[in-house]
Design a protein that fits this description.
With about 300 residues, the protein is of the alpha/beta class. The chain has 9 helices and 13 strands. α4 runs parallel beside α5.
Length: about 300
């Protein structure tokens, strides 16, 4: 029996993560190499796959579904590294040939997992409408910054849903002026699953608390709402429901939280496509994300499904 097929539109990044960084360098008034602009690291840096699309694709492939990642990977050394990781998980990569350089993310995190980041975004992935519509997958996820234009997402999702495809959108990260519910309305009308977190939901709805934010969102969107709350677990609102079902978090010691939300996305969609009931899928996604957060390998530490 063929495995279900998931298509993901989102970025690929190589992450360089500096864990437990005690301080950041400061700019001196000269060009010399001194203790003012140098920070010694007590822990080895972590180099891993990154980017909302690539993270989710790597995880979903490891969790038992066929994945095609529509992304932007260059012919440079970082691109070769990213391709090796993704292909080792079984991800099929679709990337335009004219990409010159792969995105790079350098993150310093302190012991509380607060972050300071340098980011080269590379090229924005585009929705390959003809490829998706010619041979529709079982599900499509659009994620990452910057997203394709909302009008284009809405048009593509409308045609995919008419073929019975599950459509999913992750709202993060918000790095520019946040969307409004009015701007999102055409997409929400064609959406099966909305994936978001507390910060993003409050920003999009312009609400002051989660209760009001969910009420405002529910007036515009009847599908599944998945609210990722980090160490506080996950809230799930089934279609047309106003009451969240709380999925408790796993009790783990966090080593690295970069990519946790993307890991959850990939694991959840893989579990759903394999036929797990919603609550069982949510618990599995929580468990996989917890394993990644507790791993020194980051997303590369995603356990393979046996």
């Amino acid at each position: 029996m063929p495995r279900p097929h998931l298509a993901i539109i989102g970025g690929t990044v190589v992450d360089l993560i500096l864990p437990a960084t005690k301080q950041l360098p400061t700019w001196p008034n000269h060009t010399e190499f001194t203790t003012r602009n140098l920070v010694f690291l007590e822990n080895a840096p972590l180099v891993t796959i990154g980017g909302n699309g690539a993270n989710a694709a790597f995880v979903a492939a490891r969790r038992g579904v066929d994945v095609t990642l529509h992304t932007a990977i260059g012919p440079d050394g970082l691109g070769s590294l990213a391709r090796t990781w993704l292909e080792s998980a079984g991800v099929t990569i679709q990337s335009p040939r004219q990409i010159s350089a792969t995105a790079l993310n350098v993150t310093a995190a302190n012991s509380q997992h607060q972050r300071a980041t340098f980011y080269y975004p590379g090229t924005t992935p585009v929705i390959p409408q003809q490829k998706l519509l010619r041979n529709p997958p079982a599900a499509v996820l659009v994620c990452g910054w910057p997203h394709p234009p909302l009008a284009q997402i809405a048009r593509t999702f409308a045609r995919l849903r008419s073929s019975g495809v599950l459509t999913a959108l992750d709202t993060g990260p918000i790095l520019e002026k946040p969307w409004t519910l009015a701007a999102l309305h055409p997409v929400l009308a064609q959406l099966t699953v909305l994936l978001t977190n507390e910060h993003e939901l409050l920003a999009i709805t312009r609400a002051k608390n989660l209760t009001t934010a969910l009420q405002k969102l529910r007036r515009d969107f009847a599908g599944d709402i998945i609210l990722k709350r980090g160490a506080d677990g996950v809230w799930w609102l089934p279609p047309e429901s106003d009451q969240p079902t709380v999925v408790a978090p796993k009790n783990i010691k966090a080593v690295n939280t970069v990519g946790a939300g993307d890991t959850f996305n990939g694991a959840l969609l893989a579990a759903w496509l394999r036929g797990l009931p919603p609550l069982a899928a949510l618990r599995e996604a929580n468990s996989v994300a917890a394993r990644v957060v507790a791993s020194k390998q980051g997303v590369l530490g995603t356990p393979r499904r046996r």
